[in-house]
Structure formats: structure tokens, C-alpha cells
Amino acid sequence: MRRLGVLLLASALCGVTVGSAASLALATQGLGAAHLTVPRCTSGGLGVLPNLAGTSVISVTVRSLPGACGGATIQVAVNNGSDSSSGSDTVAGGGGSVTVALANLVPATTTEQIDIVLVGP
Is the whole-model pTM more than 0.90? Predict the structure, then answer.
């Protein structure tokens, strides 16, 4: 008898849920996407050098930044597969090189991934 009561209660709750969903209004609204060409301050190669303190990466130096990247924010992320950290800095007006300090030390391993993003100028 108790099982029958639980089954009836469950059936009633399912009916309330379906009834609530059936009362929702449907409208034709779609998602769209735009195509936008994003200008780049460089398409050339950059020099990337992880800087170590003992056996951990503490910062990353990015070299060969052209003057067109001056004023941009450079973001660097280092990932060794189990630990990761990131940091950011501003590229000087004339370009050149920037050393970005990481928020946390990342132990150096044989395989590391270093990602660089330039935002702006």
C-alpha cells in the first residue's frame, strides 16, 4: 500500500512538471554570429624564454615584439600538465621584449605549454 502511495505521488509530481513546461510560450528567436576581421599587431615569430628559479618557471620573457604592439596587454600562461599559472604586463611603446611574472611558480618539466595573447592596443 505504501508503494502505491509513493507511485501516485511521483506520478502527480511528473504531471505538474509537464504541465508547467507546456505553459511556456514559444517564440522564434535565433542565435546569430558575425564575421569580423581582427587586426594583428604582428604575424611574425616571437622569441619565448621561460625564466627559472631553481627548477620552477617564475616568469616568461617574450622578445621581438614590434612597435605596432606597443601599449598592448600581453598575457602569458604556463602549463606543465599538472600545475599552471599566468600573468600579464603591458608592452612598451616601441615594442622590444617584455618579461611577464607568473602569479605562482610552475615546476619545470620536459613538456610545458606556454600560451601568449596580445590584447589591444
Answer: no
